[in-house]
Design brief:
Layout: H1 2-14, H2 17-20, E1 24-33, E2 36-44, H3 58-75, E3 83-87, H4 98-103, E4 108-117, E5 120-131, E6 134-139, E7 142-147, E8 151-156
Parallel strand pairs: 2-3
Antiparallel strand pairs: 1-2, 4-5, 4-8, 5-6, 6-7
Helix pairs in contact: 1-3
Protein backbone atom coordinates (compact mmCIF):
# COMPACT_ATOMS: atom_id res chain seq x y z
CA UNK A 1 0.00 0.00 0.00
CA UNK A 2 2.83 2.41 0.84
CA UNK A 3 4.30 1.64 -2.57
CA UNK A 4 1.17 2.84 -4.36
CA UNK A 5 0.85 5.84 -2.03
CA UNK A 6 4.33 7.11 -2.93
CA UNK A 7 3.60 6.69 -6.65
CA UNK A 8 0.28 8.54 -6.27
CA UNK A 9 1.92 11.39 -4.33
CA UNK A 10 4.63 11.80 -6.98
CA UNK A 11 2.05 11.73 -9.79
CA UNK A 12 -0.08 14.36 -8.06
CA UNK A 13 2.95 16.60 -7.52
CA UNK A 14 3.71 16.43 -11.24
CA UNK A 15 0.13 16.81 -12.50
CA UNK A 16 0.40 20.56 -13.16
CA UNK A 17 4.18 20.86 -13.51
CA UNK A 18 4.64 18.48 -16.45
CA UNK A 19 1.97 19.94 -18.79
CA UNK A 20 3.22 23.44 -17.97
CA UNK A 21 6.62 22.32 -19.26
CA UNK A 22 5.28 20.56 -22.40
CA UNK A 23 5.87 17.13 -20.84
CA UNK A 24 3.70 14.21 -19.78
CA UNK A 25 3.98 11.41 -17.26
CA UNK A 26 4.73 8.07 -18.91
CA UNK A 27 5.08 5.83 -15.85
CA UNK A 28 6.17 5.69 -12.22
CA UNK A 29 7.82 2.70 -10.53
CA UNK A 30 8.71 2.27 -6.88
CA UNK A 31 10.91 -0.81 -6.70
CA UNK A 32 13.37 -2.55 -4.43
CA UNK A 33 16.54 -3.86 -6.03
CA UNK A 34 18.84 -5.60 -3.63
CA UNK A 35 18.88 -3.42 -0.54
CA UNK A 36 18.09 -0.18 -2.36
CA UNK A 37 14.72 1.33 -3.24
CA UNK A 38 14.16 3.44 -6.34
CA UNK A 39 11.41 5.85 -7.28
CA UNK A 40 11.65 5.92 -11.07
CA UNK A 41 9.71 8.57 -12.93
CA UNK A 42 9.52 8.28 -16.70
CA UNK A 43 8.56 11.43 -18.56
CA UNK A 44 7.72 11.90 -22.21
CA UNK A 45 6.70 14.59 -24.66
CA UNK A 46 3.35 14.56 -26.36
CA UNK A 47 3.58 14.05 -30.12
CA UNK A 48 4.03 17.08 -32.35
CA UNK A 49 0.97 18.51 -34.11
CA UNK A 50 1.81 16.47 -37.21
CA UNK A 51 1.91 13.30 -35.07
CA UNK A 52 5.68 12.89 -35.16
CA UNK A 53 7.60 11.82 -32.07
CA UNK A 54 9.37 14.30 -29.86
CA UNK A 55 11.95 13.32 -27.29
CA UNK A 56 12.87 14.36 -23.76
CA UNK A 57 16.36 15.79 -23.23
CA UNK A 58 18.66 15.61 -20.22
CA UNK A 59 17.90 19.19 -19.16
CA UNK A 60 14.18 18.37 -18.95
CA UNK A 61 14.91 15.28 -16.84
CA UNK A 62 17.09 17.37 -14.54
CA UNK A 63 14.40 20.07 -14.21
CA UNK A 64 11.73 17.51 -13.28
CA UNK A 65 14.11 15.74 -10.89
CA UNK A 66 14.96 18.95 -9.01
CA UNK A 67 11.30 19.99 -8.83
CA UNK A 68 10.05 16.61 -7.66
CA UNK A 69 12.93 16.05 -5.23
CA UNK A 70 12.20 19.37 -3.49
CA UNK A 71 8.46 18.57 -3.22
CA UNK A 72 9.06 15.03 -1.96
CA UNK A 73 11.50 16.34 0.67
CA UNK A 74 8.73 18.58 2.00
CA UNK A 75 6.27 15.73 2.61
CA UNK A 76 8.75 12.86 3.15
CA UNK A 77 6.31 10.15 1.93
CA UNK A 78 8.52 7.08 2.47
CA UNK A 79 9.69 5.50 5.70
CA UNK A 80 12.81 4.10 4.05
CA UNK A 81 15.37 5.95 1.98
CA UNK A 82 15.17 5.72 -1.80
CA UNK A 83 16.85 7.09 -4.88
CA UNK A 84 14.84 9.28 -7.25
CA UNK A 85 15.54 8.70 -10.93
CA UNK A 86 13.90 10.70 -13.73
CA UNK A 87 14.33 9.63 -17.32
CA UNK A 88 12.57 9.14 -20.63
CA UNK A 89 11.07 5.74 -21.48
CA UNK A 90 13.67 5.40 -24.26
CA UNK A 91 13.42 4.56 -27.94
CA UNK A 92 12.44 0.99 -27.08
CA UNK A 93 9.67 2.13 -24.76
CA UNK A 94 7.20 -0.43 -23.48
CA UNK A 95 3.57 -0.12 -24.49
CA UNK A 96 1.75 0.16 -21.18
CA UNK A 97 -1.29 2.37 -21.77
CA UNK A 98 -4.15 1.79 -24.17
CA UNK A 99 -3.29 5.09 -25.86
CA UNK A 100 0.21 3.73 -26.67
CA UNK A 101 -1.35 1.19 -29.03
CA UNK A 102 -3.08 3.96 -30.98
CA UNK A 103 -0.12 6.34 -30.89
CA UNK A 104 2.33 3.75 -32.21
CA UNK A 105 0.07 1.92 -34.69
CA UNK A 106 2.01 1.22 -37.87
CA UNK A 107 5.32 0.89 -36.00
CA UNK A 108 7.40 -2.24 -35.57
CA UNK A 109 7.22 -3.77 -32.07
CA UNK A 110 9.17 -6.51 -30.32
CA UNK A 111 6.86 -8.95 -28.57
CA UNK A 112 7.61 -11.57 -25.90
CA UNK A 113 4.93 -14.06 -24.96
CA UNK A 114 4.43 -16.18 -21.85
CA UNK A 115 3.63 -19.22 -24.03
CA UNK A 116 4.71 -19.98 -27.59
CA UNK A 117 2.47 -19.04 -30.52
CA UNK A 118 3.18 -20.91 -33.76
CA UNK A 119 6.35 -22.25 -32.10
CA UNK A 120 7.69 -18.79 -31.16
CA UNK A 121 7.76 -16.86 -27.90
CA UNK A 122 9.55 -13.80 -29.34
CA UNK A 123 9.03 -11.94 -32.60
CA UNK A 124 8.84 -8.54 -34.27
CA UNK A 125 5.70 -7.43 -36.05
CA UNK A 126 3.87 -4.29 -37.18
CA UNK A 127 1.45 -2.96 -34.57
CA UNK A 128 -2.06 -2.41 -35.92
CA UNK A 129 -3.74 -1.51 -32.64
CA UNK A 130 -5.63 -2.77 -29.61
CA UNK A 131 -9.24 -3.94 -29.67
CA UNK A 132 -11.07 -5.17 -26.57
CA UNK A 133 -7.90 -6.32 -24.81
CA UNK A 134 -6.47 -7.99 -27.91
CA UNK A 135 -3.30 -6.70 -29.60
CA UNK A 136 -3.57 -6.70 -33.38
CA UNK A 137 -0.30 -7.25 -35.26
CA UNK A 138 0.84 -7.98 -38.80
CA UNK A 139 3.78 -10.36 -39.17
CA UNK A 140 4.62 -10.36 -42.86
CA UNK A 141 1.33 -11.24 -44.52
CA UNK A 142 -0.10 -12.91 -41.41
CA UNK A 143 -2.48 -11.09 -39.07
CA UNK A 144 -1.97 -11.96 -35.40
CA UNK A 145 -4.45 -11.29 -32.61
CA UNK A 146 -2.94 -11.82 -29.17
CA UNK A 147 -4.68 -11.17 -25.85
CA UNK A 148 -2.78 -8.57 -23.80
CA UNK A 149 -2.57 -10.95 -20.84
CA UNK A 150 -0.61 -13.44 -23.04
CA UNK A 151 2.14 -10.86 -23.63
CA UNK A 152 4.97 -10.62 -21.12
CA UNK A 153 6.58 -7.60 -22.86
CA UNK A 154 5.80 -5.44 -25.85
CA UNK A 155 8.14 -2.61 -26.80
CA UNK A 156 8.81 -0.38 -29.77
CA UNK A 157 11.49 -1.96 -31.92
CA UNK A 158 14.57 0.15 -32.52
CA UNK A 159 15.25 0.18 -36.24
CA UNK A 160 18.41 1.78 -37.63
Amino acid sequence: MAKQRIKDIAAEMLSDFLPANDLELFNIEYVKEGRQRFLRVYIDKPPAEDGSDRYVNIEECEKVSRYLSDRLDEVDPAEESYTLEVSSPGLDRPLIRESDYTRYAGRLVDVKLYKALNGRKEFSAELEGLEDGVVCLRDGGEELRIPVDSISKIRLAVVF
